[in-house]
């Protein structure tokens, strides 16, 4: 999913001259966007500097380094994701871009990435024959939920759009900002790409429930996914229970659980 948006952001900036051939790129990220940007920038020969944190999985940090990215790590509060951490990362990335003259992709505000999610929506529409009753997606920057749901509406799908948030920091639905450990979602504040009316409904999913679902997906379906996918599927099942038989609920399995093995390991002992 993130490969699409990383390519869209870089290609758009190259095409309109914001990013010159061989020009350096800066981004702040919890890791998945960073890994995809590192991949794209490696192929397109753009040096990449990523501002990230020890709050995020070691595997993602290592993959970014292996793909050639330079990393600046912002210390977290006991490896938890908070509003302060997100804003500290953004502040450092902008300062770095200002000092070096690099192009900052700035995923929290970048609308170039929406085209990637428009294409994703087109694929889902085709695969379902347009028969979609609900779209359920967690929010980090908000780009995937916004891009996909806006395209569904353009295609004439009258669907229920459901936003998934960490229960510990459900700010989009009016809750207090808090800390959680679901990589890539729940920035802790209302993100710039968000606007009132995107979602018809909200589902708050705790880190514990997301983790329980990822184990269930692995054991029952052979799908080894990350915590944000666990949150998505938990919420999607809740929504499915409220709909009539035969309804179609679409959600996204965002990435592989292999990106999170070091953080999962501490929770696996009681399972065996």
TrEMBL record:
The Tryptophan synthase beta chain-like PALP domain, residue ranges: 1-255
InterPro entries: Cys_Synth/Cystath_Beta-Synth, TrpB-like_PALP, TrpB-like_PALP_sf
Signal sequence extent: none
Protein's name in the database: Tryptophan synthase beta subunit-like PLP-dependent enzyme
């Amino acid at each position: 999913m993130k490969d699409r948006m990383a390519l869209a952001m870089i290609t758009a900036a190259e095409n309109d001259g914001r990013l010159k051939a061989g020009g350096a790129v800066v981004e702040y990220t919890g890791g998945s966007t960073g890994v995809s940007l590192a991949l794209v920038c490696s192929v397109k020969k753009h040096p990449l500097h990523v501002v990230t944190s020890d709050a995020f999985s070691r595997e993602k940090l290592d993959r970014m380094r292996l793909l050639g990215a330079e990393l600046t790590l912002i210390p977290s509060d006991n490896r938890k994701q908070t509003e302060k951490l997100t804003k500290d990362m953004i502040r450092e990335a902008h300062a770095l871009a200002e000092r070096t003259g690099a192009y900052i992709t700035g995923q929290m505000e970048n609308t170039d990435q929406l085209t990637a999610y428009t294409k994703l929506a087109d694929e889902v529409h085709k695969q379902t024959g347009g028969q979609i009753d609900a779209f359920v997606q967690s929010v980090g920057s908000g780009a995937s939920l916004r891009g996909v749901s806006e395209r569904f509406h353009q295609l004439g799908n009258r669907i229920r759009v459901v936003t998934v948030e960490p229960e510990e920091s459900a700010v989009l639905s009016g809750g207090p900002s808090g800390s959680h450990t679901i990589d890539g979602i729940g920035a802790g504040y209302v993100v710039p790409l968000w606007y009132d009316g995107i979602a018809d409904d909200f589902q708050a999913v705790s880190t514990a429930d997301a983790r329980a679902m990822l184990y269930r997906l692995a054991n029952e379906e052979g799908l080894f996914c990350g915590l944000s996918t666990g949150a998505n599927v938990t919420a999607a099942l809740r929504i499915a229970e409220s709909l009539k038989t035969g309804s179609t609920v679409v959600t996204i399995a965002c990435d592989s659980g292999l990106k999170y093995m070091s953080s999962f390991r501490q929770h696996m002992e009681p399972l065996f």
